[in-house]
Design brief:
- This protein is mostly helical.
- It has one domain.
- It is about 75% helix and about 0% strand.
- The protein contains twelve helices and two strands; from the N terminus they run H-H-H-H-H-H-H-E-E-H-H-H-H-H.
- It has a two-stranded antiparallel sheet.
- A hairpin with a 2-residue loop joins strand 1 and strand 2.
- It is globular and about 70 Å long.
C-alpha cells in the first residue's frame, strides 16, 4: 500500500482539526462533562473513524479497509483497559471534575505523539527483520497468559504509584500543593511552578505509553501498513477520553474484560506466529524455507475480535447483575433475621 506524503499530511491535518474543534467547543469553558455530552462526542468520533475506513475501502480496496477496521476495534477495546488506570490516577491526584477533560486531552495527545515513534520503530524493524514477527507473536501470547491470570479487582484497585517519568517531571519542575484553576504552570512568589495538573497529564500520557507496549505489536499482527496502524491508533485514542466520561461506573461492571482482552491478544499472537512460519526466512528453521501452515485472514480476525468483545460484555453484565441480586437477597435475609431476633 503506497501512501503519498500528501495523504499523510492531510490525515494528520484532519486529526488536528478535530482536536481543535474539541478544544474550542468543549474546553472553551471548563465544566463537568455530562453522560449525554460524552455520548454525542463518542458517536461523533466513532462516525469519523468509520467514514475514514469507508474512504480507505473506496480508494485502497476492501482488504486494507478490513485491516484498518480490525486494528481500530482492537486498539479501541485494548484502550478501554486504560480507563481503569485513568480512574485510579484521577482519584489519586484528586483532579477536579471540571478539569478532567483537559487532563485527558493533553495526556492522550502526548501519548499519540509517543505512539507515533513506537509505530515508526516497529514498522522499520518489521521491514528489515522478518524474525520480529516471531518476537511480537510470542510476546502477545505471553501477555495474554499473564493477563488472563490477573484478577480485575486486584489489578485495578491497587494504590497508584508514580512511574519514573512522573517522578522525573517532579524533579525537573517544582510543583505546587494545590490546583490553580486550569493552569499547568503558575508563579508563586515570583518563582515559576508546575501545578498538579501538569503532573497528572504526564502520568496519563506515560501510563498510556506503557499500554502501547502491548497494543502496537497487536495491531501489527493485523496489518503491516504503518499508515493504517497510525490511523487506527489515532482514532481509538481520540475517542477514548469521551468514553471515559460515558462509561463512568460501568467500567466496574466489565469484570471479564481482562479475560476477553487476553483472548484477543492470544489470538493475534498465534496469527503472527503462523504468518511468520508461512513466510519463514530463518536459516535454522526448515532450512530457511517457508513452512506450509494455515494462516488467519482479516475476515476471520475481525469476526473473532468482535465476537469476543460481545461475549465479554454480555457475560460481564450478566455476572454483575447476578451478584447484585445475590447481595440484595443476602441483605434482606440479614434484615429479616435481625428483626426476628
Amino acid at each position: 500500500m503506497m501512501v503519498p506524503v500528501w495523504v499523510w499530511l492531510a490525515t494528520i491535518g484532519g486529526l488536528l482539526v478535530l482536536l481543535a474543534i474539541d478544544l474550542v467547543v468543549v474546553d472553551r469553558k471548563p465544566h463537568e462533562v455530562t453522560v449525554g455530552e460524552a455520548g454525542r462526542w463518542v458517536a461523533f468520533y466513532v462516525t469519523c473513524a468509520v467514514l475514514f475506513g469507508l474512504g480507505i475501502w473506496m480508494f485502497a480496496g476492501g482488504t486494507h479497509a478490513g485491516e484498518y477496521f480490525a486494528g481500530y476495534i482492537t486498539e479501541y477495546s485494548l484502550s478501554v483497559d486504560n480507563l481503569f488506570i485513568f480512574l485510579v490516577i484521577m482519584s489519586a491526584f484528586k483532579v477536579p471534575t471540571i478539569h478532567q477533560h483537559k487532563v485527558l486531552l493533553v495526556g492522550i495527545l502526548l501519548a499519540l505523539v509517543l505512539r507515533g515513534v513506537f509505530i515508526a520503530v516497529g514498522a522499520a524493524a518489521i521491514s528489515q527483520f522478518s524474525w520480529v514477527f516471531y518476537v511480537f507473536g510470542a510476546f502477545l501470547v505471553y501477555t495474554a497468559v499473564k493477563l488472563s491470570g490477573s484478577g480485575l479487582g486486584d489489578e485495578h484497585e491497587e494504590e497508584y504509584q508514580e512511574n519514573r517519568v512522573t517522578r522525573w517531571a517532579r524533579k525537573l519542575f517544582p510543583v505546587t500543593d494545590e490546583y490553580h484553576e486550569a493552569k499547568v504552570f503558575t508563579k508563586v512568589g515570583g518563582r515559576r511552578f508546575a501545578t498538579p495538573l501538569f503532573i497528572v497529564m504526564i502520568a496519563i500520557g506515560s501510563a498510556d505509553l506503557m499500554f502501547a507496549v502491548d497494543s502496537i505489536p497487536a495491531i501489527f499482527g493485523l496489518t503491516k501498513e504503518p499508515f493504517l496502524v497510525f490511523a487506527a491508533n489515532a482514532f481509538a485514542l481520540m475517542g477514548l477520553r469521551q468514553l471515559y466520561f460515558l462509561l463512568g461506573g460501568l467500567l466496574r461492571r466489565l469484570v471479564y474484560l481482562s479475560v476477553g482482552l487476553a483472548v484477543i491478544l492470544g489470538f493475534i499472537g498465534v496469527k503472527m506466529i503462523l504468518e511468520a512460519l508461512h513466510t519463514n526466512a530463518l536459516p535454522f528453521l526448515n532450512g530457511g524455507e517457508p513452512l506450509h501452515v494455515p494462516t488467519i485472514g482479516i475476515p476471520l480476525s475481525l469476526s473473532v475480535i468482535i465476537g469476543v468483545l460481545v461475549v465479554t460484555a454480555v457475560a460481564s453484565l450478566a455476572k454483575t447483575r447476578r451478584d447484585e441480586r445475590k447481595g440484595v437477597g443476602e441483605a434482606e435475609r440479614e434484615t429479616a433475621a435481625d428483626r426476628a431476633s
